[in-house]
Amino acid sequence: MKRKKTLLFASVIAGYLPMAGAGLTFENYLSLSFWKPVEVTPPSSTGLDAVYVIETMCTDAKVSFLANGASPASSVQWYKFSNLGGGYAQPVASTTEGSYSVARFTASDVVDSNGIGFIVEYDGRRYCYWVVNYFKEETHLRGLNISPELECDRTPLLFDGNAARIVYYTVNGVPTTLSRDMELIYTTLTYNEEKQQYEPEVVTEKLEYADGAIRATAPLCDTEFTLTTDRFMRQWLDEGHPQASGWVREITSPSFHTNAISATTRAIAATRDNDNEQRDDKAPLGGSGPVDITFVADITDAVVFKEWQFSRDQQFETIDIRIQELEVPHTFNDYGTTYVRFVAGNDAGTCDFIGETYEVYVGESKLDCPNAFSPYGSEGVNDEWKVSYKSILEFDCHIFNRWGIEMAHLTDPSQGWDGRYKGKLVPSGVYYYVIKAKGTDGQDYKLSGDINILKYTSNSESTSR
Known about the structure:
Blueprint: H1 2-14, E1 24-27, E2 38-40, E3 50-54, E4 62-66, E5 77-81, E6 90-92, E7 95-97, E8 100-104, H2 107-111, E9 115-122, E10 125-133, E11 140-146, E12 154-162, E13 166-169, E14 175-178, E15 182-192, E16 197-207, E17 213-217, E18 226-228, H3 231-238, E19 250-252, E20 263-269, E21 285-287, E22 291-299, E23 305-311, E24 321-323, E25 327-332, E26 336-345, E27 352-354, E28 358-362, E29 366-368, E30 372-373, E31 388-390, E32 392-400, E33 406-410, E34 420-421, E35 424-425, E36 429-439, E37 444-453
Parallel strand pairs: 3-10, 21-28, 30-37
Antiparallel strand pairs: 1-4, 2-3, 4-8, 5-6, 5-9, 7-8, 9-10, 11-12, 12-17, 13-14, 15-16, 15-18, 18-19, 20-22, 22-25, 23-24, 23-26, 26-27, 26-28, 29-31, 32-33, 32-36, 34-35, 36-37
């Protein structure tokens, strides 16, 4: 029956919308104000309207609720609950002081627990709170050192002090962590995409609590670690209370020599704007060969070993080329896919980096020859003789007239013949080409054929043999 009561109570709280401005205030037994409590808004799933962290929970200290509704403060009904949840809440005696309804902490509240829950019923509504007794949860910072057991992705730190997990309880009695928001501050390196380099950056990691061992994200440069006290003590220190003069705001570790490494790589492909070269889009990198790509790696401080690796095997079980440079220009002449990656290591060989794998594809070769063109027939339209090609490594083309006189000699497939000989247009008629070429796939081309120069306007320049 008790379990059923707890669930019923929780459902009532979950359906309640709290009154604007409703909350608790605290005073100690000398009727002096507490240090300003730290108020935390918990998740709505907890059924709580607020969690309060007070510096010291004293016997007979007052906790007050402002009755700002239609009913008088005397109509407020108080309950308190423990870690069992609101279903086991017990009534609490209260008094009225003006517009405030006042309850008091008892000796058992202070001595026997690290916190207590309050339920306030007023104007047909329920307000639920949890109060943390910080005196029993107080942070103590004594020392911070580097663990000798270093890792590549994490740096273990040895914390000497007290900053254990703070737990509060929901209306249903579920233990929930109240984050201390301690700050671990250190310097690392981050990559600047615009400048294409690593730069120092101070980072802050939030810690819910510290229990003797802290594992920070491994910094990429030498640094010191600074650990601050929790957000509650920071607030009270910032408020300048004289009683806080003995508290320690932060501690700093000895200098740390990083062993962690990282790198950022990029591949810069050269482009060719040849109107007669056929495209090959089977892969992001490469296409019609030869393919020229420059590989660049930017590295962090602890990198000692560095190497670009080239392989025809995607698993890199066989590595064909190793180049120990950060910037490597390379020409890919062979048909098929080549895999390229950057690897790095630190001086002790304990941390490795393997970058992304670049796939460079060189397509099969093709070579087609047109049999006619028309110089000056219509400017910009079929007024130059060019082969259509893809992945041609070697190219040698001779063009002759019918008497065997060489009109042009082309050594690159991107070149064309404009129908001129010694600067003047040749007559229309039949000419001949002889081509020897070799493709990236090893295919040899031996081609020959006719080139028909079509007639052009009578006022065009011409010359005869």
